[in-house]
Design goal:
The structure is a single chain. By secondary structure, the chain is mostly beta strands. It has one domain. The chain contains two helices and six strands. A six-stranded antiparallel sheet has the order 1-2-6-5-4-3.
Length: about 120
């Protein structure tokens, strides 16, 4: 069961070991999307893929490294752009529940704010 409030709580079946939990997240990374930083520096860019690259689980914490692949099309220049960025998220473990804070993007900067 997944419950979303100000935190993302994911209940993991008790019988899964660490490797099986990691495998679950590799196969179901979209369950983590609300806790992941998927903001892109370009308004035209879109997320193409998210892949977990590292997964560390302890008795009271969880740490996930992930790669965000993104691309953009610039029609006026007839150009495609693609890149990737390595990011991470940490949460806590309470028994068989993993708890992550919901990602809140920082406010966008505007040149008006600089004057």
């Amino acid at each position: 069961m997944i419950l979303i409030t100000k935190q993302l709580k994911i209940d993991i079946p008790h019988e899964l070991d660490e490797d099986e939990i990691e495998g679950y997240f590799h196969d179901n990374v979209e369950d983590l999307y609300s806790a992941l930083d998927l903001e892109l520096p370009d308004d035209r860019a879109q997320v193409d893929d998210v892949q977990i690259t590292e997964f560390e689980l302890t008795d009271d914490s969880v740490h996930i490294e992930y790669n965000v692949e993104f691309s953009a099309y610039y029609g006026c220049d007839d150009a495609n752009y693609a890149d990737s960025d390595q990011r991470s998220v940490s949460g806590r473990r309470d028994g068989s529940t993993l708890i992550f804070d919901i990602f809140v993007p920082p406010p966008r900067r505007d040149t008006v704010d600089e004057f």
